[in-house]
Amino acid sequence: MTDEAKTSLSIKDWATADRPREKLLAKGREALSNAELLAIIIGSGNPEETAVDVAKKLLHAADNSLVELGKKDINALKKIKGIGDAKAVSIAAALELGRRRQAETALEKPTVMDARTAYEILLPDLSDLPNEVFMALLLNRRGQLIKKTKISSGGVSGTVVDIRMILKEALEHLCTSMIIAHNHPSGNLQPSAEDLKITQRLKQACELLDIKLFDHIIVGSQSYFSFAEEGKI
Questions:
Q1: Are 52 and 11 spatial neighbours (Cβ–Cβ below 8 Å)?
Q2: pLDDT tens digits, residue range 106-116?
Q3: Residues 6+ away with beta carbon under 8 Å from 58
Q4: What is the spatial distance between Cα 40 and Cα 87, in angstroms, rounded to a whole number?
Q5: SS3 category, 12
């Protein structure tokens, strides 16, 4: 069969067991590749390619990473042939549901005993962002999460952090300890001089109110930097 003949086949021409929808029904969602799951969302391809082919191109444009795909806006998705407004919106909606599902897990009010737990709670809110966002986890005496709150949102290289706003949130919710966190859109997890400065200033302010600042975490898509683990707090 020539390459031209191959590309002219639609998914309907495939063996039933190889079609994404039928494969999911027969074998379960775990049996499908990322491209096949994405093809189900897309629904159809273009005159030269199947939905799976288009899905593979979408993933390739995102370095075969769902994390990177989640960062793309509607216009970026539409650069792939066969992806128009409706399909781009469907993809964006599916990825946002995945993000919100992660966030709901974090709402179970876990006990935050270490930086890894804090990172997992914060990841749905601070990953895949094009700008810097500063947040705080407010905890009770047993280390249980009282509230996850956004303090400020800024640009690519930084955000203004008002210590008074952080303490206001802490006092309103009667927290006895907290963990602060922010993301670095650049992907570089090393703290800046300003990161170190704001951490020490907040630590000193918290001590006056008998509030323990446990940690400051810089959140990345795949990892994190913990001031406590690195002995910087």
A1: yes
A2: 555 789 989 99
A3: 38, 69, 77, 80, 83, 91
A4: 11
A5: helix
**pLDDT bracket for residue 9 (50, 70, 90):** low
Dihedral sign, Cα of residue 56, residue 60, residue 65, residue 70: negative
- 147 phi, psi to nearest 5 deg: -160, 145
Q: How many CB atoms lie within 10 A of CB 35?
A: 20
Q: Is this model's pTM higher than 0.85 or not? A: no
Q: Hey, what long-range contacts does 12-21 have (CB within 8 A, 24 or more apart)?
A: 20/51, 20/52
Rounded Cα–Cα distance for residues 59 and 113 (Å): 36
Give yes or no for a contact between 159 and 152, defined as CB atoms under 8 angstroms apart.
yes
Please answer whether residues 180 and 202 qualify as being in contact, where contact means their C-beta atoms are separated by less than 8 angstroms: yes
Helix (H) or strand (E) holding 91: helix 85-106
Consecutive H or E run containing 58: helix 51-61
C-alpha span between 56 and 50 (Å, rounded): 10
Q: Among all chains, which residue has been given the structure tokens 């179970």?
A: 108
